[in-house]
Design brief:
The complex is a heterodimer of chains A (121) and B (233). Chain A contains three helices and three strands, in the order E-E-H-H-E-H. Chain A has a two-stranded antiparallel sheet with strand order 1-2. In chain A, a hairpin with a 5-residue loop joins strand 1 and strand 2. In chain A, helix 1 packs across helix 2. Chain B has 233 residues and is an alpha+beta fold. Chain B is 20% helix and 25% strand. In chain B, strands 1, 4, 5, 6, 7, 8, 9 and 10 form an eight-stranded mixed β-sheet that branches. Chain B has a two-stranded antiparallel ribbon with strand order 2-3. In chain B, helix 1 crosses helix 2 and helix 1 packs across helix 3. The longest helix of chain B is centred in the first third of the chain and has 18 residues. Chain B is globular, with a radius of gyration of 17 Å. Classes of the chains: A mainly alpha (121), B alpha+beta (233). Chains A and B meet through helix 2, strand 3 and helix 3 of A and strand 4, helix 4, strand 6 and strand 7 of B.
Chain lengths: 121, 233
Amino acid sequence: SAVVSDVNSDGDPLIRQVVSDGGVEEDSDDHLLNAEYHFTLFKSKYRKTYASQEEHDYRLGVFKANLRRAKRHQLLDPSAVHGVTKFSDLTPSEFRRQYLGLKPLKLPADAQKAPILPTDN
Amino acid sequence: LPDDFDWRDHGAVTGVKDQGSCGSCWSFSATGALEGAHYLATGELVSLSEQQLVDCDHECDPQQYGACDSGCNGGLMTSAFEYTLKVGGLEREKDYPYTGNDRGPCKFDKTKIAASVSNFSVISVDEDQIAANLVKHGPLAVGINAVFMQTYMGGVSCPYICFRTLDHGVLLVGYGAAGYSPIRFKDKPFWVIKNSWGANWGEDGYYKICRGRNVCGVDSMVSSVAALHTKSQ
């Protein structure tokens, strides 16, 4: 929704909302249109194609969830920019399985320790 | 220690690579560190083969049962250095190109070794020591928690909350004293990290994360490698 302000005849600033309080369905319509639109951009930018309409619809659902996730990340990490990336049609577990790959272990205990280096000039 | 430092400015970092849909980040982190060390030892920047590690390195960590390097199913950079030390070195990328899967046999050819490891070390969770080793020994192999990286597009990542369980291997190539973060209206010192998800991710394939409090575990698994002074054949 947007809010604009102007001043009425007797000089009082008139702050009024120009878009009705969207009910849940209206907000979600915005969100859905937004998500559909972003998904279209995402598919063309990263040349994504899906084997079937079911797969496409499933990936759209994942994409919407990742939009919300990017929003949460932005709130938690405001000094970076979070949004749609080439991984936005992957669930977090698909992403972890396919694109990470560090054995979740401590460093080998027997590895040689680096000598302490001088750090003051 | 300089306030800002970046091995890309000194020619010690190859182009951003793409591991594709394969959990082989550990091999990209390890080759990146050896590429830098080889450059420091010989003045020669050579892109090294991750596929050799994916196909041939099944080195296990003696201390931890089941902790073996296993292609697209994960590995450890220090085990990769151990493997490379044992077999004599890594081939060039162009002699043993990356395929993005681990179904092929090991095709390692000893006569084509391009870079060799003389030793490797792990570095304590001390940011000054990490910076000092980076400046002295070249790019460092680091582990990180990648949860915020799936949606990252740019800027200095500094999440208020981020687990330190490590699930991704990357390459630390530099650091900066001040990456301006508009939201917090102040400069934040940051690490510069080379990732292996292609140049169309993040900042041209790179990730910046703030320094100072082991954010996302970035300070907790850091290792450096030293290369032999032999130029590639």
